[in-house]
Amino acid sequence: MKTDGDLRTRLIEAATAMLTEHHALAVPSLRAVARACGVTAPAIYSHFDSVDALIAAVLEGGFTALEGAMQAADGLRAAAHAYVQWGLSNPGLYQLLFESADRLGIAPATETLTRTGVAAVQAQLGVTPSQAARLHERVWVSLHGIVSLRIHKAHYAWTTPVSQDVDDLMNLFLP
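^ TetR family transcriptional regulator, sequence as received from the core. Prediction below:
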């Protein structure tokens, strides 16, 4: 005979399985996007043959905007601040680019952003390409942590302003 304790355990196990299962994002249909634009569904097909093509265009636009913000910055420290400010100013798009694109089965265009960043590190610090790649990756991981935590933990009582977090981080990596 099963007891209430057994049921409680089974409920916790089932809830754990459901909560930790890989979840797909709710992707709008092409029809829904067309409706939001006030056009018929066939009109959208002359621009995008699939929802994946539309999402790829959104990702491309997001990466272009982020890269533009960083390239407008003068130096690595300013580029780091630009990255964080862009992410916090565009939280939904930032999450789509860096936290959801892989789950959607669409490869994000991080390669271009990485190449640009590695080249900037190498040029400013005069290090080898492999050293620049390692440093760029460490800084990116840290900056992503700053942005992601600030987005997801907006109500947390942060002890420092975000600009100080970026400066403290960059002081660790830059001479």
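The two ends are 68 Å apart (CA to CA).
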